[in-house]
Specification:
With 110 residues, this protein is an all-alpha fold. The chain contains six helices and no strands. 60% of the residues lie in helices and 0% in strands.
């Protein structure tokens, strides 16, 4: 289950300070460091240049959902060996509460 959570995080964690692609780099690195005890790893091949080229495919609503997701993920307490299940549930709750399943397919292709 944790692998699914990590894959979802890696593939859907594109949200923006400067833009969505810039924030992905920042939040992803921070997230992985903060949650090392859960062996979180980014198994996707994120390409910032490709992301920036395709960012226009995301609607304002898509970007709002992605930012809401990343805001939520950033607030998850650091994972420990004792809290792996709670950690996984928290990440999935962030995805559900920010309605990631409703992001356009064009935007998911980032």
């Amino acid at each position: 289950m944790l692998r699914c959570v990590c894959a979802a995080l890696a593939s859907l964690s594109l949200a923006g300070c400067g833009n969505l692609c810039d924030r992905y780099d920042s939040v992803s690195a921070s997230f992985q460091t903060k949650h090392q005890a859960c062996n979180v790893s980014d198994s996707t091949s994120f390409n910032k240049a490709t992301c920036n080229e395709n960012l226009a495919q995301c609607t304002a609503a898509d970007q709002e959902k992605l930012n809401k997701y990343m805001d939520c993920v950033e607030k998850i307490p650091a994972c420990t060996s004792d809290t792996k299940l709670a950690f996984a549930e928290a990440v999935m709750n962030c995805a559900t509460n920010s309605e990631l399943e409703n992001i356009s397919s064009a935007c998911q292709a980032l």
